[in-house]
Specification:
Layout: E1 14-28, H1 29-32, E2 41-53, E3 58-61, E4 77-80, E5 84-88, H2 94-100, E6 108-112, H3 118-121, E7 131-135, H4 136-143, H5 155-158, E8 165-167, E9 171-174, E10 177-181, E11 190-195, E12 201-204, H6 227-244, E13 247-249, H7 256-259
Parallel strand pairs: 3-6, 6-7, 7-8, 12-13
Antiparallel strand pairs: 1-2, 1-5, 2-3, 4-5, 9-10, 10-11, 11-12
Length: 268
């Protein structure tokens, strides 16, 4: 019997994954769960990840928030906007989070933005020496978003002199690190699949899912650009997690830090 051909590319180059806390938002529950929980405020974390690579080309998934007035890395904010409150302290700065693990922005060779919303691309301008990779559909939409979803695209945060590398669909960024298109929340949203040396797979959802309640039944976030696509992306993430025995790392899950350990812990 002929052997099953091995069509895989190189094995994972991932050494470890460290999860970061980038501050907290207080928002209406119905932003998390479509038309449910209106009037109930919920506090959610903003998170991201550092992916240590064996070849030294370390990766950052999302750059967190960097609210106005906090560029110096020293200030605290408790800002009230139209429908949300931002809580941000100096240690939530991506530079401070990297320092906790003995790294600086210069150690980041590749930044992968899930999408260009202000709480995921806020620190982009701190990485002038890094390569940035995003979906071309997100790049195009961010520069000319539909008016009803334009507010989270704070242009100064992503349009800051970076020469973005644009991907067309699901892409292996490095062996063991795959970008997975998960549109719906935004047209060009992507999640990230990371295969650890242990063989375990972490699936970082970004905003394709905001909390576990989006899973069962597939209930889109309330702030999706296209709810039909959001539901399909949630189903795809769930299927892949089930198939691979992978862990869904749900970016804004209110119980995130009850389930996961933050820096300096390294998942391997
Ligand atoms: Zn978003």
């Amino acid at each position: 019997m002929p052997a099953i051909p091995d069509t895989r590319s190189a094995d994972t180059l991932v050494e470890s994954v460290t999860l970061f806390h980038f501050g907290t938002l207080i928002i209406d529950q119905s932003m998390m769960t479509y038309r449910r929980g209106l009037g109930t405020m919920v506090e959610i974390p903003v998170t991201g990840a550092f992916i240590e690579m064996r070849d030294g080309e370390h990766i950052l998934f999302d750059t967190g928030m960097l609210p106005h007035g906090c560029d110096d890395g020293k200030h605290v904010t408790m800002s009230q906007y139209r429908s949300l409150v931002v809580k941000y302290e100096p240690q939530d700065d991506i530079r401070a989070r990297l320092a906790e693990i003995g790294r600086t922005p210069d150690d980041i060779k590749i930044v992968i933005n899930s999408h260009f919303h202000w709480d995921h691309a806020g620190g982009n301008r701190l990485f002038p020496k890094s390569r940035f990779v995003v979906q071309s559909s997100e790049y195009r939409f961010a520069y000319s978003p539909d008016a009803f979803v334009s507010r989270p695209y704070a242009r100064a945060y992503f349009d800051c002199g970076i020469d973005y590398e644009l991907m067309q669909g699901d892409t292996m960024v490095k062996p063991g690190v795959g970008a997975l298109t998960t549109p719906g929340h935004t047209p060009g949203h992507q999640s990230l699949m990371v295969r650890l040396p242990s063989g375990r797979t972490m699936i970082m959802t970004g905003d394709a899912m905001l909390c576990p309640a989006n899973l069962d039944p597939a209930l889109p976030p309330g702030n999706a650009h296209t709810t039909e696509h959001a539901v399909a992306s949630i189903a795809r993430l769930k299927m892949l997690a089930d198939l691979l025995g992978g862990d869904l790392v749900i970016c804004h899950d209110p119980d995130f830090w009850k389930k996961w350990r933050s820096a300096p812990h390294r998942y391997r």
